[in-house]
Amino acid sequence: MKLRLEENSLRLRLSEEEVRQFAATGRVAYTIAFGPGPGQTLLYALERLPAASPASAVQVRYEAGALAVEVPAAVARNWTDTENIGFKSAVLVAEGQELRILVEKDLDCRH
Predict the structure, then answer these.
(1) What is the average per-residue pLDDT within 5-32?
(2) Which residues pair with 94 in a beta bridge?
(3) In sequence order, which residues have a C-beta less than 8 Å from that of residue 42 and are 6 or more positions away?
(4) Residue 5 near residue 12 (C-beta atoms within 8 A)
(5) Exposed e or buried b for every residue in 37-71, given b needs 16+ CB within 10 A?
(6) Beta-carbon neighbour count of residue 102 at 10 Å?
(7) What are phi and psi of 52, to 5 degrees?
């Protein structure tokens, strides 16, 4: 899963295999090490919220060293079970400041 961070935006691109994994398990995650210590890593994940979750929109959760994009079950299903390439959302992270989120399938070219 590719992670791209740019001013007020976050983009995740998943391979076909990662999309299948997300559809089956509800989670795809990776860790990037920036140094040898345990506090020098970043875990980033795409997670499907439980079907019973009251959330109806994409959310972002950040804790020291961990970033998760949380997707409502209906949005996740619509993305993984169709030809839709991606979905986007804007999350209010501070007063007057939004984080734009884009999640896409990173499909191989088929010519």
Answers:
(1) 97
(2) 97
(3) 31, 32, 34, 65, 66, 67
(4) no
(5) eeeeeeebbbbbbeeeeeeeebbeeeeeeebbbbb
(6) 16
(7) -80, -5
Q: Which domains does the chain have, with CATH numbers?
A: 2-105 (3.30.1360)
Q: Which two tokens stand for residue 8?
A: 């007020």
Q: How far apart are the first and last CA of the chain?
A: 23
Q: Residue 62: is its pLDDT beyond 80?
A: yes
Q: Which two tokens stand for residue 69?
A: 């994009």
Residues 66-83 pLDDT 10s: 999 999 999 999 999 999
In the chain, helix, strand, coil percent, each to 5?
Answer: 20, 50, 30
Q: Rounded to 5 degrees, what are φ and ψ at 36? A: -80, -20
Tokens of 71: 């997707």
Average pLDDT over residues 53-58: 89
